[in-house]
Amino acid sequence: MVVNCEQVWHEVSDYLDGEVGVELRAAMDEHLRACKGCSSLLAGMRNVVSLYGDERMVEAPLGFSYRLQRRLEENSHPTRRTFFGWAVAAAATVLVAGSFEAARSYGLGRTPRSAHAQAGNHVPPDLMVLVYPEGKTFHAAGCPFILDKKNLRPVAAQEAQREGYVPCVRCMKQYLS
Ligand SMILES: [Zn+2]
Ligand SMILES: [Zn+2]
Q1: How many angstroms is it from 36 CA to the middle of ligand 1?
Q2: Residues spanned by the domain of 157
């Protein structure tokens, strides 16, 4: 038996409840081992469940308070099923929020060069950084935005800046304001 992501999302509350059959559970375990998306969804759900598992939910994650409140008004004793439905939605929101955050910081790395120069710059002058001969930015060793590792040249940050290089907004973020 093989399950896909959608089937996993569909069955995950039963899975956490221990209400899926042996064969389905094995197939889901198999999928969760291989699929990062589904395993982080499950981890997120476990988190929510352990935080709110007593079902006395005092405060709901952002955006869910209204819906939750309505649900509680409709049914003062929410069943485990509706609780898990809510938890799935909450965990999914965390995932979506996470990818927005990633997109946003990726966008930062693509800011036009002029913005770099204007950014407050507190890079330690004798920090060793890496520059390309033809590049405009300097990087910390191990920066994932270094594309061509062959021609990199190590140089002190103050020297790089004197030569007109500006700090990479990704790996030098901690020094920029
Ligand atoms: Zn999956
Ligand atoms: Zn960098």
Answers
A1: 7
A2: 113-175
Calculate how far, in angstroms, residue 113's C-alpha sits from the geometric centre of ligand 2. 13
Of 109, 137, 161, which residue constitutes the final position of a domain?
A: 109
- Looking at residue 119, its amino acid is A
Domain closes at, from 52, 76, 109: 109
Q: Tell me the pLDDT tens digit for each residue of 110-155.
A: 444 444 444 457 888 888 888 888 888 888 877 877 777 777 888 8
44 vs 102: CA distance, rounded Å: 17
Q: Which ligand is nearest to the CA of 123?
A: 2
CA of 149 to the centre of ligand 1 (A): 34
Beta strands (DSSP E) in the chain are 128-131, 137-139, 153-156, 166-167
Count of domains observed in the chain: 2
